[in-house]
Amino acid sequence: MANYAASEIASVLKDAGGELIGRTRLQKLLYFLREAGMGPDLSFEYRHYGPYSEEAVFAAKEAKYEGLIEEEERVANWGGPYSVYRLLQDVEGSPERAEFVRIARDADAVQLELAATALFLAKGGEGSPWEEAERRKPEKASGGGLGRSKALYSKLRAVPGFEDRLPEL
Amino acid sequence: MVGQRVRDPLHNLIEFQTSTEDLHHVLWQVLQTRPFQRLRRVRQLGFSDVVYPGATHTRFAHSLGVFHTAARLIETIKKSAPRPQKQKIDQTLAAALLHDVGHGPLSHAFEPFGKRFKLEMAKHETVSERLITDSEITPLLETISKGFAGNVADMVCGKGEKSVYSAVVSSQFDADRLDYMRRDRLMTGTQNSAIDFEWLVANLEVGELPYGVDEVQTGVRDTFVLGPKAFFAAETYILALFQLYPTVYFHKATRGAEKIFEELLCRLYLLTVDGSIDQTGLPENHSLIKFFRDGLKLEDFLELDDTVIWGSLSLLATAKDKYVAEFATRLRDRMLFKAIDVRARLEICFDGDEDRIDHALNRITSEISARNEAKFADGPRILFDRAERSPYKTLESGGPLNQIHIRQADDALVDIRDISDVVRSIKSFKLYRAYVARDDCDSQKFVDDLIQSEISDGQLRGI
Fold first, then answer.
1. What DSSP assignment string belongs to B232-296?
2. Which one of A94, A138, B24, B152 is CB 3.0 to 4.6 Å from B16, fit for a cystine?
3. Distance separating alpha carbons of residues B91 and B340, to the nearest angstrom
4. In angstroms, what is the C-alpha Rg of chain B?
């Protein structure tokens, strides 16, 4: 029997419509859900792409081992690797977070990373999380990137049930 | 003109051009500060001298070595970059010197202890940041320029903008690794893990690399690359660094000592915050007690170094708390627990099926934790150590500037993993060891039975 976190990853994929592109996207989505109390209680730390969970990596591996999901590795146009996660078994989703998950699924990965980073910094006591996220990732925040990230975060917070669960930044 | 010079067993001579370079003059003064001088009393390899008696070198010597090595890497940037940035160069050298300033005593155990109780002041990045931006080091750095200390702290903690300069301080080919792997090899005496340092540096260049997030490209950046003639030296470097883990850093006796120290610290911390200092064997004004009791202050942290810990063991060995007394005695007298290589036994039976092995180890961990909680009120008596080292980190851990790129004949920059059969084929080194007292037959049997149960379960399932 899969452990709870592995089962939850499969459930999140169900909410995403059965497929999710990108390890960064998966990591940041799990981070948002954890903070909103709508996902597995994984521990996160700050890494290059913002909040990162080693436990999430293990849980995804466990989910693959149990045959719940598969991970296909591809090469992006820019030459770096990325992953595509697919649900293999029919599992129960969670209607209360499905819309949130779909927004994250369709969001630009860079904007999702910036928004998750800002939230992580705010939770760590940073008084100006967007400014600090911009300072740490200037190339991702430039050209209107920060504004689009803020808009994405507002859109995520506006999902019914999430406004009280995610803080205003 | 003669500046300041320090002799070093690895680099021979480390020079600070204090007469001609403002930054070097400032950094020489930083060396004289209390936080930096404290590193003379913090060993680079903690408990490794229980296995390698020569491994007594300090973070002080290592920090000087990283400064020296960073200066060598910066020469490459100066040759290759169209307009080398003096401020970034200064920031890099300062960060190289100060990168370890916040390390706790015997930090390979001190940090896991801190992680268990979520203690920020046990994390070396947090303390380094505080010491760089809020100690006697700070006004010295601020003489370079306003905000310089903050920029140095950002580079040390990996918070600032990623660039070829930050890669000197933190990447898979950084000054830190290039010093510690050679220094640790020299001082332990291990004959593994030699690298061709001069050839690697002679073939180091700066190249431009696209990078992105998942499938999205976000830009291009300058990064270190190695010329094609350094390909085999680069393979050797990766393998050499990797092999230091099973032979030195992850040695079973060293890790066993770290685990005992970690549990000792946990017990001391709990007794202190519980108001039971009289049970510890230490006086109320002992540096460790003050650090634990008084809210983990920076000035109390500065009192902590390896000598304080080693010096406290004789007092701790007489503690009223039997767990503290026993574990302190074990460290003082090198009476370490026996290591049971759980993973090795499963590997034989599961024929290298990593997923199956990890699954079994998750269950064994749960059983051991439950046993410790049920049977041993004062502290665990079956310790376990689970760790993994990959030979070459993935893109997710540090981004594209973290990787080692080789320039091909057509000038394309390729991650070494994509073109090296050697790098691709090295599997991660994984360990899982249980540690029990040599005279604790019950606990040994418990662990043996757990292993056997997993093996039997696997055989039933036809694995």
1. HHHHHHHHHHHHHIIIIIT-HHHHHHHHHHHHHHHHHHHHHHTT-GGGTSS-TT-HHHHHHHTT-
2. B24
3. 46
4. 24
Q: Reduced to 3 states, what is the DSSP secondary structure of residue B106?
A: coil
Q: Write down the pLDDT at residue B395.
A: 65
Closest to A30 in 3D by CA, of A17, A22, A88, A134: A22
For residue B407, what pLDDT is reported? 94
- C-alpha radius of gyration, chain A, whole number: 15
**Structure token digits, residue A12:** 């999140």
Residue of B162, B166, B213 for testing the chain A interface, max A β-carbons within 10 Å: B213
Q: Write out pLDDT tens, residues A119-159.
A: 999 998 899 999 999 988 888 899 999 999 999 999 999 99
Give A88-126 pLDDT, tens digit per residue.
Answer: 999 999 999 999 999 999 999 999 999 999 999 999 889
Q: For residue B450, what are its two tokens?
A: 């757990």
CA atoms within 13 A on the CB side of A117: 26
* Residues of chain A contacting B, Cβ within 8 Å: 3, 21-25, 47-49, 52, 58, 61-62, 64-65, 74, 76-83, 108-110, 113, 135-140
Whether residue B354 lies within 8 A of chain A, CB to CB, comes out as: no
| Cα distances (angstroms) measured from residue B193 to each of A129, B95, B243 | 43, 26, 7
Per residue in B368-401, pLDDT (tens digit) is: 999 999 999 889 999 999 999 988 887 666 677 7
- The pLDDT confidence band at residue B460, using thresholds 50, 70 and 90, is low
| Chain A residue at shortest CA distance from B354 | A65
pLDDT at residue B208 greater than cutoff 80: yes
Instruction: State yes or no: pLDDT of B146 exceeds 70.
Output: yes
